[in-house]
Amino acid sequence: MLKIAYSPVYKYELPKGHRFPMDKYELIPEQLLYEGSITTDQFFHPDQLSEADILLTHTNEYWQKLATNSLSKKEIRKIGFPVRPELIDRGRYIAKGTVDCVKYALEDGVSMNVAGGTHHAFADSGEGFCIFNDFAIAANYYLSRGVLQKILIVDLDVHQGNGTAKIFEEEPRVFTFSMHGEKNYPLRKEKSDLDIGVPDKIEDADYLKILKDTLPKLLDQVQPEIVFYLSGVDVLSTDKLGRLGMTKEGCKQRDQFVFESCYHENIPVVVSMGGGYSERIADIVDAHANTFRLAQEIWF
């Protein structure tokens, strides 16, 4: 059974007019349930991530600033949200959701988080709508316990996974692969183990060719025990921040190729949703829902 991390706290009320589409975290499960792609018993509600597990990835100084609501105005601007205690709590539930997804993926082949993909968070700071780095937290959780020894992070969000790259720059057990808009945010890129910057306006065929030429070789080279897949839908041509030229069908084919490549190699996959900022919320929800539909179809 496909197990999906979701909690009502994933939806969070931002100030009126804020551009981040928080509604998608409620609408994705509703859409999947309405169409019968999944059932309610596939959802699990994660607990809150412990302080000890936060500190496996994030610095104590940064955590104390979050815990005491004492980030500077500059630090808050860098994150891009008004940072309140409820938002920090929300991040702890989301990160624990990804941690728990690893357990289910190891058992069932795949597991998914309705939120997550917070790849701009560094060990000592937040950035770009990201407070905690859920993939880094989940990776360090299982590495520290000796459960996993080799992890491949496949980050196909339109923005480089800069925080993830920096956190694992000296960790040979985690291979970071980011395929992103070359000229998009962040302006200053970090160094992943493999970075592929694609040009603005790239369309489906060229994007998919790069991915198909790259991922199978990586799976063979890295020999991961698990893949963490960040399936951002901000690659769509309709995205307000993405600047690429991909269709919804191309995005679906991207997900299908990642899933089938891992499935045929018997490599478990953990999925977090990442970004999506199209004008129409229906486009965001449908593109994300495709990822869930495909996982259900391929594994179950």
TrEMBL record:
Belongs to the histone deacetylase family. It comes from the Bacteria. It comes from Portibacter lacus. GO terms for biological process: epigenetic regulation of gene expression. This is Histone deacetylase. Residues 18-289 form the Histone deacetylase domain. CDD domains: HDAC_classIV. GO terms for molecular function: histone deacetylase activity; hydrolase activity. Keywords: Hydrolase. The lineage of its organism: Bacteria, Pseudomonadati, Bacteroidota, Saprospiria, Saprospirales. It holds the Pfam family Hist_deacetyl.
